[in-house]
Each structure stands twice: as structure tokens, then as C-alpha cells.
Amino acid sequence: MHQMIPTMRTRLQHVSLLSLKRVSSGGSTVKKKDERPINANRKSPDTPPTNIEELRTLLIDITKGDAPHSLGAKARAAFGRILDIQDSNDLLSITTLSERIETNPSTITRLAKNLGYPGFGAFQKALLATRLQQPGSFYLNQAQSALLNADQPIKQRAAQLCHENQANIDHFVENLDPKSFETAIRLIADARRVTIYGIRQFHSLAAFLAYGLRLIRADVSVLDSNALGAAEEIGAMGAGDVCIVISVAPYSRQVVAAAQVAHEQGLDVIAITDLASSPLVSTSKAAIFAPHQSSFISNSITSFFAVAECVINAVAASNSEETEQALIARQNLIKRLNVEDR
């Protein structure tokens, strides 16, 4: 085992470099069909998507190399940013949309045609098909108008951020792919071991998710929580184990590399991320998406904690009898250790 550790560390470093090249160059790796996340509402190759759900499914397929369409890295990134827009007003003209995602109108027109639409108008119709009915746009518009001036009361500033977080959670719920989510839950519930990887502020999310899952099942850990090395911990796992990776744009290089290595080691990778164009999608068996647009000074993670709670509850519900026994055993331990002061 001691002889394997340097080899595994070298392997992680090597794959990390390869992963970075793939992300920067827009290159893709051919994946097996059973490694695709399960998605609903797939369209035939000759029919362009008619709504936001079908567009998101198409981008996932393009990212995995399983679609008849081929897009470069910049086009995929633009596509992902368009799908993540919450304010429908930004979609009402090609000019406002191009300004919102910081690109040229001609780029959006080319993207629409590459996806099989005759022009922007048809693409716009698909984008607006469900978004005009989303309450998230109302929350975001209200929040944006709350802070036109920097000298507004602190309560209004707090209200803005809270409304934006409400919008993100609403957006997550309305666009949740139930089949992909159910796949993730089944993999977690049936796994021999589960490890969760997120760094910087998402390390706290990884710890929270690990704590919740440990309440209802054994052998859940945070990857590299003791700084002993991601390579060593991934190397100790194998087929039948699950690795949950968490990152949003700008994506953490270490997490992308770890996801690639875990996938190549035979682990089932579950991605919790923001966009269908995320580099974590290509190695995942299931992907769960949550938006994080807000006025917070860093990436907002409130919606991701909501995702974590949904995952924990769903795993608990997947086997209610075992969950009940696990919770009883945990409560007995808490009493014996006199943890709680009543």
C-alpha cells in the first residue's frame, strides 16, 4: 500500500493537468452510454428544443459529447450562462441578452443556428416558454430595485440578499430534473462508501452534507478533510463507492481533477454544480444544478445548502426503517455521551 501512494499522487497530478487542458481547450472525452445522467424530455436530433428543460438536457449531452451538435468551449460557456439567467427581461431582445452575458449579438445568433433554430427569434421563444411563469424573476427584480442607492437602510440591503436567495431556491425547484436527482439518491443510498469533495467555502457544504448523511448511513467522509491527500483517499476507494463533487464557476481545478480521477478509478461521481456546461458534468453519473446569482461578495451558497437538505431527506426516505434505527442509535449515543444540555 505504501508503494501505491506515490503512484496515485503522481496520477492525480497528471490527470489534473489533463483535465485543465480539456476544460480550457473545450476538448471532450468519449463516455459510455450508461455513464450519462438520466434526463427527461429528450428531443430527436432533428427537432430543436422547445423549452428550457430540453435546452438544459441538450447542453448536458453536448458537454458529454453525446449530442449531434458540437460547440466550442466559449459557445458552451455562453449557452450555460444563457440558461442560468433568471430575469426574463434580459431575454426580451438579443441586445439585452448579449449585454447580460457579455458577448456579441452575432455570437448568440450563431449559437441559435448551431442548435438547429432558424434564428434568434425561435431560440428566444424556447428560452421564454417557461421562464415567463417563474416567480424567481419577480424576486430578483424586486431585489435589484431595492438597492439603487448605496445609502439605503441596512434592512433593505438584507432584504435584497434574502430575496435573491429565495429566487435561487425557487429556480432550483422549478428546474429540478427528478430522474437525475433520483439517480443520485439511489447511488448514495446503495453505495458502500461515500466521500464528498468541496474546497474553500464549499468545504463547509461538504461537511454539512457529510454530517447529515452520517445520521442515516455509515461510512461517509469529507475528502481530504485532514489534508492527508486526495490521491490517497481516492486510491483507497473503488467500484461501488460514490464521490460527490461540488464546485461552481469559476470552477476549482482540484475538484475538477479529483472528479476525473475518481471516475477513472471506477467510482460513481455525483456533481452538485451550477451549469450544464460545468466541467464536472462530463464525469458524472448524475448532476444536480443550483443557481447562485446574488449580490453577495462571493459565490452565494444558500441554494446549495437547500440542495444538501433535499439530498439528505431523500436518502433518509429511501429506506425509512434503516433511517429510523440509525436515528434511534444516534440519539442513544448522544444521551450516553451527555452531549446535549437540557
From TrEMBL:
This is MurR/RpiR family transcriptional regulator. It comes from the Bacteria. Residues 24-50 are annotated as: Disordered. It comes from Pseudorhodobacter turbinis. SUPFAM superfamilies: Homeodomain-like, SIS domain. It holds the Pfam family SIS. Residues 184-342 form the SIS domain. One of its GO terms (biological process) is carbohydrate derivative metabolic process. GO terms for molecular function: carbohydrate derivative binding; DNA binding; DNA-binding transcription factor activity. Signal peptide: none annotated. PROSITE patterns: SIS.
